[in-house]
Amino acid sequence: MTTIARATDTLTRDALTVLQPGFTGTTAPDWLLRRLGEGLASVGLFGRNIASAEQVAALTAQLRAEREDVLVAIDEESGDVTRLEVRTGSSFPGNLALGAVDDVGLTREVAAELGRRLAACGVNFNWAPSADVNSNPDNPVIGVRSFGAGTDLVARHTAAYVTGMQSAGVAACTKHFPGHGDTGVDSHHAMPLIDVDAAVLAERDLVPFRAAIAAGSRAVMSAHILVPALDPEHPATLSRRILTDLLRGELGYDGLIVTDGMEMRAIAGTYGIERGSVLAVAAGADAICVGGGLSDEGTVRRLCDALVEAVRAGELPEGRLADAAERVRALARWTAAHKADAGAGESEAGDVGLRAARRALRVTVADAFAPLTEPPYVAALTPVANIAVGDETPWGIAAELFRLLPGTETGSFTGPDAGHGVLAAAGPRRVVAVVRDEHRHPWMAAALDTLLAARPDTIVVEMGVPRAEPRGALHLATHGAARVCGRAAAEAIAGV
User: Which of 217, 241, 276, 288 could form a disulfide with 231 if both were Cys (CB 3.0 to 4.6 A apart)?
Assistant: First the structure.
C-alpha cells in the first residue's frame, strides 16, 4: 500500500513532516520537490550534494522556491567531519582542537563564523556539535570530534558552540544523547554498549547535554547505543525511558529530538529502518534522520507508509506523531525568525579557523630543531576512515608543505611493512611521518619505530587524539586533521 502517492491528508503530511531525508546530486530531484509540496519539511545535505558554496546556495534556493520554510540540515561539525568543504578539508579546526585551546570565546567565535557561512548558503540546521565526553581513548568513532575527555571542559565548549552557531540563525543539534564517548564500537557498524551505572552517566555524560539545553540548543540528536543503566532493552533512539522520561522529563528539554541516521547498522541491522522509525517516534523522537546511505524516493515512501500504518494499527498514537510534526514546524518558525545578516563579521572573523588551529598546535622538540629549508618526503600512515569522517576529504600536511617548500613529495602507507615502505620511498629526503591515533593502531606505532631507528631526524605529526608519547626530532600534535590544522603544522615545520 502506498499512501503518499495518492493522498496528502493530515496524517500523511505529519508523517512526511517528521522525515529528514537525503538525496543524490547537486540539484534537487523532481521527486524531492514534489514531496516538499506534499508535506516534507526537512532535507539533509551530505558531501555528495556539495560542489561549492555558490552551488549550495542555488540548491537551497531551489528547495525554498517549493517550500519557503523548509529546514535544510547538514552534518557540518568542522574539523574532520566537514560537508561544506568535503573536497578540500575544513577551514575550521574541530572540537578537540578547540578543547585543547580551551578558550570558550574562541569556540563561540568559530561556531558563529561557521554558522554565518552555512546561513549564507541557505543552510539553517546543523547536526552539530558533538557533546560526547571522549572518556574511552579507544573510541573508534568520536575521538577528535569530542572537545575532550573532561566533563566540565566538554560542557562549557558545547554551550559556547551552541550559542555561537545559533547567533548566526542556524539551529544547533547537540549530539549524541545520552553520550557516545565511552564506546569501543562504531554504531555505524554495530550496537555499542555503555555499561556503567546511572551515577556515572549523570556526573559524566549528561552534564554537557544539560549545558547545551541551558544554552538553548534547538535540537538534540539521539545515539544508537544501548545503556542498560537507563534502559536494558532498547537503544537510546528507541527508548521512551531515555528520550521522554530522561531528556524531556528529568532534563526539562522542550526542543526537537532528532535520531541519528536510521540506516546505521545499529538500528537497520536489528530492527529495520521502517520498524525502527516507528519505534523512535513512539519513544519520543520528533524527526527521523535518514539519507546518509539511503537517498532515494522509495526510502521516503516506505518510512512515511510505515508511520501512517502504525497509527492506523494503533501502534503509534496519532497525537504523538502530530506533536512530533509540530515540533519540526516550530523549529522552522524559529529559523525564519532568527535569520542573521549572512555578511556580518566576515572581515573580522574570516581567519578565525586558522588562528584557532595555530593556537591548538602542541610542539615537542627532542633537541635543537632547525626549520626545514629543503622539500621533505611526507609519509601519511593512513588508517581506515570511520564512516562519519568519510574518505572523500583530503587530510594531512603534504599540500600545505608543498606550498611552502615546492618539490615536497608524498605517499600513503598502511600495514605491517609501512615503515620499510616509507624508507624505500623517501630515499635521502627528510621524512615527515603523519599519523592519526597512533595509540589505536599497533602497525602505525611499529612503523614509527622502524622509521625512527633508521632516521632519528624524522618529524612526527599526530593529527588524531595525541595519546601516544611524543617522539621524533620534532613532534607536532594538531588535535585534528582539518586543512587549517595541516597548515598550522606545515608552518611550524618550515619555520614561517
Answer: 241
Return d(Cα 63, Cα 117) in angstroms, integer: 18
Phi, psi of 45 (to 5 degrees): -105, 140
Q: How far apart are CA 39 and CA 70, in angstroms?
A: 10
> Which uninterrupted H or E stretch holds 377?
strand 377-381
DSSP 430: P
Helices and strands per DSSP (H, E), number in the chain: 19, 14
Least confident range of 240-244, 266-270, 377-381, 410-414:
266-270
Residues with catalytic annotation? 188, 260
3-state secondary structure 140-180: CCCHHHCCCCCHHHHHHHHHHHHHHHHHCCCEEEEEEECCC
Give pLDDT tens digits for 296-316: 999 999 999 999 999 999 999
User: Which is it for the CA torsion 404, 410, 415, 421, positive or negative?
Assistant: negative
CB atoms inside a 10 Å sphere around CB 71: 26
Give the distance from CA 140 to its chain's centroid. 14
Please name which of 204, 212, 175 lies closest in space to residue 81, comparing C-alpha atoms: 175
Q: What is the DSSP string of 259-324?
A: PSPTTSHHHHTTT-HHHHHHHHHHHT--BEE--SS--SHHHHHHHHHHHHHHHHTTSS-HHHHHHH
Mean pLDDT across the chain: 92
Residue type, position 132, single letter: D
**pLDDT, tens only, 361-379:** 999 998 788 999 999 999 9
